[in-house]
Write a sequence for this structure.
Protein backbone atom coordinates (compact mmCIF):
# COMPACT_ATOMS: atom_id res chain seq x y z
CA UNK A 1 0.00 0.00 0.00
CA UNK A 2 1.48 3.37 -0.98
CA UNK A 3 2.16 6.04 1.63
CA UNK A 4 0.31 9.36 1.56
CA UNK A 5 3.35 10.99 -0.05
CA UNK A 6 3.61 8.29 -2.72
CA UNK A 7 -0.11 8.61 -3.48
CA UNK A 8 0.17 12.40 -3.71
CA UNK A 9 3.09 12.08 -6.13
CA UNK A 10 1.24 9.54 -8.27
CA UNK A 11 -1.90 11.71 -8.30
CA UNK A 12 0.04 14.79 -9.36
CA UNK A 13 1.80 12.86 -12.11
CA UNK A 14 -1.56 11.53 -13.30
CA UNK A 15 -3.05 15.03 -13.19
CA UNK A 16 -0.19 16.37 -15.29
CA UNK A 17 -0.65 13.61 -17.87
CA UNK A 18 -4.42 14.14 -17.94
CA UNK A 19 -3.99 17.88 -18.45
CA UNK A 20 -1.59 17.31 -21.36
CA UNK A 21 -3.97 14.77 -22.89
CA UNK A 22 -6.87 17.24 -22.66
CA UNK A 23 -5.05 20.14 -24.31
CA UNK A 24 -4.19 22.04 -21.14
CA UNK A 25 -0.39 22.04 -21.36
CA UNK A 26 0.02 25.27 -19.40
CA UNK A 27 -1.77 23.75 -16.42
CA UNK A 28 0.25 20.54 -16.83
CA UNK A 29 3.43 22.64 -16.74
CA UNK A 30 2.25 24.21 -13.49
CA UNK A 31 1.73 20.78 -11.92
CA UNK A 32 5.12 19.66 -13.27
CA UNK A 33 6.78 22.70 -11.68
CA UNK A 34 5.53 21.46 -8.31
CA UNK A 35 7.09 18.08 -8.99
CA UNK A 36 10.45 19.62 -9.96
CA UNK A 37 13.21 20.06 -7.39
CA UNK A 38 12.35 22.94 -5.05
CA UNK A 39 8.82 23.13 -6.51
CA UNK A 40 7.14 22.56 -3.15
CA UNK A 41 9.35 25.22 -1.59
CA UNK A 42 8.21 27.78 -4.15
CA UNK A 43 4.58 26.93 -3.51
CA UNK A 44 5.07 27.07 0.25
CA UNK A 45 6.73 30.50 0.09
CA UNK A 46 3.89 31.80 -2.07
CA UNK A 47 1.23 30.48 0.32
CA UNK A 48 3.07 31.83 3.38
CA UNK A 49 3.50 35.23 1.73
CA UNK A 50 -0.20 35.33 0.91
CA UNK A 51 -1.16 34.47 4.49
CA UNK A 52 1.43 36.59 6.32
CA UNK A 53 0.53 40.20 7.04
CA UNK A 54 3.09 42.75 5.86
CA UNK A 55 5.58 44.11 8.33
CA UNK A 56 4.74 47.47 9.90
CA UNK A 57 7.56 49.48 11.41
CA UNK A 58 7.39 52.13 14.15
CA UNK A 59 10.20 54.17 15.63
CA UNK A 60 10.60 53.59 19.36
CA UNK A 61 13.17 54.19 22.05
CA UNK A 62 15.63 51.30 22.23
CA UNK A 63 15.26 50.89 26.00
CA UNK A 64 11.47 50.69 25.70
CA UNK A 65 11.63 48.17 22.87
CA UNK A 66 13.90 45.87 24.86
CA UNK A 67 11.68 46.20 27.95
CA UNK A 68 8.54 45.43 25.95
CA UNK A 69 10.17 42.45 24.23
CA UNK A 70 11.27 40.98 27.56
CA UNK A 71 7.91 41.61 29.23
CA UNK A 72 6.01 40.13 26.30
CA UNK A 73 8.20 37.05 26.26
CA UNK A 74 7.79 36.63 30.02
CA UNK A 75 4.02 36.86 29.54
CA UNK A 76 4.17 34.11 26.90
CA UNK A 77 3.31 36.49 24.09
CA UNK A 78 5.09 38.44 21.38
CA UNK A 79 4.93 42.05 20.27
CA UNK A 80 3.00 41.29 17.09
CA UNK A 81 0.23 39.59 19.08
CA UNK A 82 0.31 42.41 21.65
CA UNK A 83 0.03 45.08 18.94
CA UNK A 84 -2.85 43.21 17.29
CA UNK A 85 -4.62 42.83 20.65
CA UNK A 86 -4.14 46.53 21.39
CA UNK A 87 -5.56 47.63 18.06
CA UNK A 88 -8.55 45.34 18.43
CA UNK A 89 -9.25 46.78 21.90
CA UNK A 90 -8.74 50.30 20.55
CA UNK A 91 -11.29 49.80 17.77
CA UNK A 92 -13.74 48.21 20.22
CA UNK A 93 -13.42 51.25 22.52
CA UNK A 94 -11.79 49.20 25.28
CA UNK A 95 -8.50 51.11 25.13
CA UNK A 96 -7.64 54.77 24.58
CA UNK A 97 -4.14 56.09 23.95
CA UNK A 98 -5.10 59.53 25.29
CA UNK A 99 -2.95 59.40 28.43
CA UNK A 100 0.20 58.14 26.73
CA UNK A 101 2.72 60.97 26.31
CA UNK A 102 4.53 61.34 23.03
CA UNK A 103 8.25 60.71 23.13
CA UNK A 104 10.41 63.80 22.98
CA UNK A 105 12.82 63.97 20.07
CA UNK A 106 16.41 63.36 21.07
CA UNK A 107 15.49 61.60 24.31
CA UNK A 108 17.61 58.48 23.91
CA UNK A 109 18.69 55.99 21.30
CA UNK A 110 15.97 55.17 18.79
CA UNK A 111 15.30 51.94 16.95
CA UNK A 112 12.38 50.35 15.14
CA UNK A 113 9.64 48.00 16.29
CA UNK A 114 8.49 45.69 13.50
CA UNK A 115 5.17 43.89 13.86
CA UNK A 116 2.89 42.08 11.42
CA UNK A 117 -0.61 43.51 11.63
CA UNK A 118 -3.37 42.21 9.36
CA UNK A 119 -4.01 44.80 6.64
CA UNK A 120 -7.72 45.20 7.37
CA UNK A 121 -7.11 45.75 11.10
CA UNK A 122 -4.27 48.16 10.37
CA UNK A 123 -6.42 50.21 7.98
CA UNK A 124 -9.41 50.38 10.33
CA UNK A 125 -7.29 51.26 13.37
CA UNK A 126 -5.39 53.93 11.45
CA UNK A 127 -8.66 55.50 10.33
CA UNK A 128 -10.15 55.48 13.84
CA UNK A 129 -6.89 56.85 15.28
CA UNK A 130 -6.82 59.73 12.81
CA UNK A 131 -10.51 60.61 12.65
CA UNK A 132 -11.58 60.06 16.26
CA UNK A 133 -8.39 60.67 18.23
CA UNK A 134 -6.21 62.85 16.00
CA UNK A 135 -3.29 60.47 16.38
CA UNK A 136 -1.41 57.76 14.52
CA UNK A 137 -1.39 54.00 14.44
CA UNK A 138 2.15 54.00 15.85
CA UNK A 139 1.03 56.10 18.81
CA UNK A 140 -1.82 53.69 19.56
CA UNK A 141 0.45 50.62 19.44
CA UNK A 142 3.13 52.20 21.64
CA UNK A 143 0.50 53.45 24.09
CA UNK A 144 -0.99 49.97 24.35
CA UNK A 145 2.40 48.40 24.98
CA UNK A 146 3.07 51.01 27.70
CA UNK A 147 -0.33 50.22 29.20
CA UNK A 148 0.13 46.45 29.07
CA UNK A 149 3.75 46.49 30.24
CA UNK A 150 4.10 49.49 32.56
CA UNK A 151 7.51 50.64 33.73
CA UNK A 152 8.60 49.13 37.03
CA UNK A 153 8.30 51.50 39.99
CA UNK A 154 11.34 53.71 40.57
CA UNK A 155 13.43 52.67 43.53
Amino acid sequence: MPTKSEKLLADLQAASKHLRDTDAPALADTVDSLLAPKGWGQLRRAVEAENTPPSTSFSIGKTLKVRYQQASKTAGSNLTDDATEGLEKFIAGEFSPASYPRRQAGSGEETFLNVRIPADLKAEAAQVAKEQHGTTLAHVVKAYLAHKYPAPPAE
